[in-house]
Amino acid sequence: MRILSIGEIIWDIFPDAERLGGAPLNFAAHARRLGHEVFLLSAVGDDDRGPRAVERIADLRVAVDFIHRVKGAPTGFAAVEVNREGKPQFAIGRPAAYDHIQFTDETLVRIADLQPDWIYFGTLFHTTPSNLAMTRRILEACPLAYRIYDMNLRGPHWNTELVVELSAMASVVKASDEELNMLRPAVVLAKHVAETELSAASLLPIKNAKAAIITRGANGCIVRAQGEFVIKHAFPVEVADTVGAGDAFAAAFVHALSEQRPMAEAARFANAVAALVASRPGAIPDWSLNEVNALLSTDEP
């Protein structure tokens, strides 16, 4: 399967180290580990972090064909603090190189020629109007591609109108329960909606999406798709940090859908991959399918 991941490259600056990340890159790396051909569309700056990022991405075997080099702009970075529960807080430096991509007709033709099976996108990258217009053009040029929108709402770098627009572009929409709480003031719910369906209902207006996913950390996930309503509990692990766990979940869910697994099985598989990532430091730690299968062989969590 061929995947195009669109969005930011960010160096996560932890108190003790710098680790390469950014949700679209994290997603791309985990999808590649699952055996797919993955291209990342992004940009780095002409600072020392730029070449290091490209080299690391190539080491992860993610295609760097569409990573632009931007002069005079820094490679993306974010200061990260992790609380006692392992949940990160990000202070994102902007503008960054990924805000200044010069997208040409030639690049669009090259992407259209690839005809990716899936296209991934998030919110942060698309707060820049030119980036939003670029993604619209790509989706128009790849009409057969499924699209997954992972909200990843960060600080002030989003607005409700943008979330609604991006949701409407997607086949699959994923959000965390915390992100739904951020959106809920802007969502009108019928009073009769059952509590068990509250999170899934809150994801609407995703008019065109075939599936809505809500990740709930240690509480697992909820999936609502084409009349199905699935709740899957998380696999219990000792959490190192949750950076990248949601991105790993998204990659694993897309992988499971590509294998035409039932929604419940896809959700459980994605929970297992996310649990492994959360149990190790950083957004792209080492893990293997053997470890995933070992978790899946345990009793239903």
Q: Structural class, please?
A: alpha/beta
CATH architectural type = 3-Layer(aba) Sandwich
Can you tell me the CATH class?
Alpha Beta
Q: What is the assigned CATH homologous superfamily?
A: Ribokinase
Q: The biggest beta sheet, please?
A: 9 strands, mixed
**Tally of discrete structural domains:** 1
Average of per-residue pLDDT values: 88
Which bin fits the share of residues in helices? 25-40%
What is the CATH topology classification name?
UDP-N-acetylmuramoyl-L-alanine:D-glutamate ligase
Could you tell me how far the N terminus lies from the C terminus, measured between alpha carbons in angstroms?
30 Å
Form type: globular
Verbal overview:
- With 301 residues, this protein is an alpha/beta fold.
- It has one domain: Ribokinase (UDP-N-acetylmuramoyl-L-alanine:D-glutamate ligase).
- It is 35% helix and 22% strand.
- It has ten helices and 13 strands.
- The strands form two sheets. A nine-stranded mixed sheet has the order 5-4-1-8-9-10-11-12-13. It has a four-stranded mixed sheet with strand order 3-2-6-7.
- β12 (221-225) and β13 form a beta hairpin.
- α9 packs across α10 (289-296).
- The longest helix is centred in the last third of the chain and has 16 residues, at 263-278.
- The chain is globular and about 50 Å long.
- The two termini are 30 Å apart.
